Amino acid sequence: MKKLNTLTLTETIQKLKAKEISHAELYRDIHDAIAEKNEQLNIYLALDPQAVAKAEKKLDTPLAGAPIAVKDNFLTIGLATTASSSVLAGFLPPYESTVSRKLRDAGGVIVGKTNMDAWAHGSSTETSDFGPTKNPRNPEYLPGGSSGGSAAAVAADMCVAALGSETAGSIRQPAAWSGVVGFKPTYGRVSRAGIVAMGSSLDSPGPMGKTVADTAFLLTQICGKDQYDATTSDIPGKDYGKSLKKGVKGMRIGICYIDHPKLAGTPVALAVKKAGTLFEELGAHVEMVALAQRIKKNTILTPDWAIGVYTVVQRSEVSSNLARYDGIRFGGDRSNFGEEAKRRIMLGTFTLSRGYADKYYTRAQQVRSLYIQNYHELFEHYDILISPTSPGFAQKLGATRGNPMFGELEDMLLEPSSIAGLAGMSVPCFHDPVTNLSLGLNVVGDQWQEEKVLRAAYAFEQNSDWNIWALEERKNG
């Protein structure tokens, strides 16, 4: 008999509401998977022992009591929030983040809090003060980060969906490396209130799931204007599942970055090219968008400059956000910061200091504006842009040691869309049977164009065989 923890979110809700399965049966299988795998994979940092009791009271809600994993930078009443840093070890928040509150209000049950790069500083989950998370597809490899624990929880069927957050790649990159689906909404579509801040002009909470439909459904529950976050938009969210099946016929799609010197001819470039062919077969108009070193019409600015922009802007905002952790108001003292946090605080403080702010921070923001301008012009011609999520497959455990720019280089293809505040998602687009690892297709749309991104990603997922859960759903009718 199929284990209930392997169900998708949408399947779980349907079966619970039809009373084909019970919460007790579902949570038994979820907790069996956690008991079997968590010691090796190091995914959950805290579990809610009352989860099934809470779930049984929520059958008549949109999420019907489904078990959801939540990244450990979301403040949660009753569950410790540490941001995977020993500075906050054992910290119990006095209030709930807006997103996790919306999740609970919609009937989702937080089964547990997932490991992450400490303070979300990284793209591996190796900077966690509580040990690295391992990739469920192959435990010799990294799951990605900083939402690596959430991606791994989904991949290991230790939940039916999860919440993560992205500053520049932290949802999409671990989704790609772990072979799941991850959605980064437009900056301001989902509230940041009550989430441990990293880069305040960049942070974007979002859903991670087994299928595109799962992430669309979860996004519908958590998006919207929030009185506690002035950066959230007045533009209302939608029921993002309604338009999934409209397809891509007539869409204009641009293929990006596969002509980059570091990508040309690689497996991920070939996978994205094949994705473009599939979109053409589905009725879209597909063409290459040439790489350029400066803004030119119908070209895309090289992601190389975005590495520097992101590094300066993010470190600057990190130095400001982490200043509150002084050991006086809450948490441990600053001697508990890990090496990565200390590096980022020092670099950020330097780039904001008198005499250097104009040279570094102001210049970075000017180049950031060029990326925004470039995308604005591209989206006058294209509906969506596709590219690799990451330059390659997941790297082995230990790959970050002695490599302080690991994250920036692994996220280089995502940083441009993140600094521009765009909507984007990663869906599996290739599977290596030797290592059991996956590659991700990055689907990007203009600000507030989540529907187009989801439609294109869904069309690709439903017409290819790379997503194991979507394939199983189709086989079962």
Low-pLDDT runs of 5+ residues are none
By DSSP (H or I, 4+ residues per run), the number of helices equals: 15
Shape: globular
Roughly how many Å apart are the termini?
17 Å
Radius of gyration: 21 Å
Number of strands: 13
What is the arithmetic mean of pLDDT? 97
What proportion of the residues form beta strands (DSSP E)?
Answer: 5-15%
Briefly, what is this?
This protein has 477 residues and is α/β, with parallel strands linked by helices. It has helices spanning 9-17, 23-41, 51-55, 98-105, 148-155, 172-178, 212-222, 267-281, 304-321, 339-352, 358-378, 406-410, 415-419, 450-462, 468-475, and strands spanning 44-47, 67-71, 109-114, 161-166, 181-184, 204-209, 252-255, 285-288, 290-292, 299-301, 384-388, 423-432, 437-445. The chain starts with 8 loop residues before the first helix and ends with a helix.
List the helices and strands and how they pair.
Elements: H1 9-17, H2 23-41, E1 44-47, H3 51-55, E2 67-71, H4 98-105, E3 109-114, H5 148-155, E4 161-166, H6 172-178, E5 181-184, E6 204-209, H7 212-222, E7 252-255, H8 267-281, E8 285-288, E9 290-292, E10 299-301, H9 304-321, H10 339-352, H11 358-378, E11 384-388, H12 406-410, H13 415-419, E12 423-432, E13 437-445, H14 450-462, H15 468-475
Parallel strand pairs: 2-3, 2-4, 7-8, 7-11, 9-10
Antiparallel strand pairs: 1-3, 4-6, 5-6, 5-12, 11-13, 12-13
